């Protein structure tokens, strides 16, 4: 039972974040999923500053770390799979740090606070870890060709929507949509990995 929980914790994290963001947003009057970042739910001074990390970052960080540990500790696992597990753990740690250090209320501020800088670096580490992990899957002999193809598609989608996110930030238009699509592609990959190794 415990082993099954570990194996499916990656899938659980992907489902959890959807409901967590929706629940937190319901307590933030006027919040726009299209125009605002997910992190704005926990931004300094937001109505859900304390609530959002409690139901999102902290449990999600634990779930990511749990799944990463499961991957790294699988019997007979290869060095590559252990590294992939380590990257998932790194993603989990980044999630925890990003929850503890909130971003500024204005995401476009020219003078971010120290907490916001730490939050941004944690977010960068999260992004990078889930860029590298699916790429490493391509070189792991234990995975099927179908899953490798799936990993490649998720990686390409994530990169594409990160590019469109950068453009949306420059225009200050609807970055929330592009952020969710980029991260959604990464979480889709994580869900697939969770199902494959379970």
Automatic annotation (TrEMBL):
Keyword Membrane tagged: yes
TM regions (residue ranges): 6-25, 54-73, 79-101, 121-139, 145-169
Pfam families: DUF998
Key words, A-Z: Membrane, Transmembrane, Transmembrane helix
Identification of the protein by name: DUF998 domain-containing protein
Native source organism of the sequence: Thalassomonas viridans
């Amino acid at each position: 039972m415990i082993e099954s929980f570990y194996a499916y914790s990656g899938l659980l994290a992907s489902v959890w974040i959807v409901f967590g963001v929706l629940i937190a947003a319901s307590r933030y009057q006027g919040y726009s999923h299209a125009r605002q970042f997910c992190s704005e739910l926990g931004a300094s001074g937001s109505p859900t500053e304390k609530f959002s990390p409690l139901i999102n970052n902290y449990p999600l960080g634990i779930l990511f770390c749990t799944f990463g540990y499961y991957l790294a500790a699988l019997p007979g696992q290869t060095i590559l799979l252990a590294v992939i597990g380590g990257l998932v753990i790194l993603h989990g740690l980044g999630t925890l740090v990003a929850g503890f250090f909130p971003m500024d209320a204005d995401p476009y501020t020219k003078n971010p606070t120290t907490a916001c800088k730490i939050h941004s670096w944690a977010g960068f580490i999260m992004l990078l870890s889930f860029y590298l992990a699916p790429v490493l899957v391509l070189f792991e002999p234990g995975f099927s060709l179908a899953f490798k193809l799936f990993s490649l598609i998720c990686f390409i989608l994530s990169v594409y929507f990160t590019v469109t996110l950068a453009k949306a930030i420059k225009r200050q238009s609807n970055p929330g949509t592009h952020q969710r699509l980029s991260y959604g592609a990464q979480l889709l990959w994580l869900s697939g990995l969770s199902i494959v190794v379970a």
